[in-house]
Amino acid sequence: MLVAIAGGVGAARMLAALSSVTDPAGITAVVNTGDDTVLHGLHVSPDLDTVVYTLAGQINPETGWGRVGETWGAMADLRAYGGDRLAWFNLGDHDLGTHMFRTSRLAEGATLSQVTAEIAARWGLRVTVLPMSDDRVETRVTVEEGGASVELGFQEYFVGRRHSVPVLAVTPRGVTAEPGRRAAAAAPGVLDAIGQADGVIICPSNPILSIGPVLATGGIGDAVARRRDATVAVSPIIAGRALKGPADTILADLGHEASVVGVARMWAPYAATLLVDTADAGRAGEVEAAGMRCVVAPTIMSGPQEAAGLGRTVLDALEAAGAGPRR
Ligand code: FO1
Q1: How far apart are CA 5 and CA 130, in angstroms?
Q2: Residue nearest (by alpha carbon) to ligand 1 atom 19
């Protein structure tokens, strides 16, 4: 069994790639829920939905989030009532059905893991999709705005500010105990899955915004570190740039090097191997000096063949580490 530590778009594509080269029933995804938000009374779990829709072949390929062939009737009406003040976060009509289902099941007392399993079952997924926690973890982003430091909710930063303001700090709230609230626990099955996995993959998601909150929750980071030798991380940074999103600028804002070497310094305690793109072949020595075995291969999933190629490279890297599923 393989366990993938996952954020949104990059992870979803990695999971689809792995599913095309190994039995999807042998893959468990542990997905970030720090981006979750409540809008119009509805519980939205963007990374869980991105993973599920992608694996179900239902993702909008242009945005990488939301449903393919979506319609926007509800948003148009909401905008007519309240303008962009209310309609700043785009929830398509079909996507809304998922949020309504999740919210009503949570109100009935179901856990987020149970609802996620129900949503995955509706789409016939064979990959097991687990939220990192059934408890609320809220990634807060402190930014510099108008000369002051302002703490924002994740989506206020990511969508509201188009992730274009300098970031001063990223804090996953809820991962440590606070007065009146215990620390978030890993969702049922997460720690066992990591402990028993043949191999663990840290997906090419934003290290600070997406993977960081997963590793900070309920002992998940410690569990992955204990499987360090069997863990392969895929760099989301290629030639100093993120393919999508603000991973490069946030790394730099927070004092890390926005490069495969910065990624290696961050993941060395958790993963023995870092897979970097051929564009970064020249930096393999520095990755190794940071304490990770460096595998160099094409990592851009520009089409199904390239994605399958990356999936096979990850399996080969696991096998070379003495890990990975039987093939
Ligand atoms: N991203 C945007 O840039 N604009 C949006 O309006 C937006 C809406 C949205 C709705 C549902 C969903 O599952 C994802 C959505 N996203 C949107 C993406 C989301 O903000 C990011 O993918 C993640 O939270 C970062 O991983």
Answers
A1: 10
A2: 46
Q: What is the pLDDT of residues 95-150, one digit of tens each?
A: 999 999 999 999 999 999 999 999 999 999 999 999 999 999 999 999 999 899 99
Residue 147 in domain: no
> Is 76 inside any structural domain?
no
**Which one-letter DSSP state was computed for residue 24?**
G
CB of residue 10 inside a 6 A radius of ligand 1: no
Residues 6 or more apart in contact with residue 314 via CB below 8 angstroms: 14, 17, 18, 201, 232, 234, 275
Q: How many domains does the chain have?
A: 1
What CATH number did the domain enclosing 300 receive? Answer: 3.40.50.10680
Q: Cα separation of 162 and 280, whole Å? A: 28
Is 150 a pocket residue for ligand 1 (Cβ < 6 Å)? Answer: no
- Residue 47 near ligand 1, beta carbon < 6 Å: yes
84 domain-assigned = no
Is 53 touching ligand 1 by the criterion CB < 6 Å?
no
Reported pTM: 0.98
What's the pLDDT score for residue 324?
Answer: 73
How does pLDDT run across 279-291, given as a tens digit for each residue?
Answer: 999 999 999 999 9
CA distance 14 to 231: 15
What is the per-residue pLDDT for 327?
59
Range of the domain at 305: 2-66+102-135+182-320
Residue 229 pLDDT greater than 90, yes or no: yes
Say if 316 falls within a structural domain.
Answer: yes
| Centroid of ligand 1 to alpha carbon of 94 (angstroms) | 15
Which stretches of the chain are DSSP H helices?
9-21, 46-55, 73-86, 93-107, 112-122, 154-155, 190-196, 212-215, 220-226, 247-253, 260-267, 284-289, 304-320
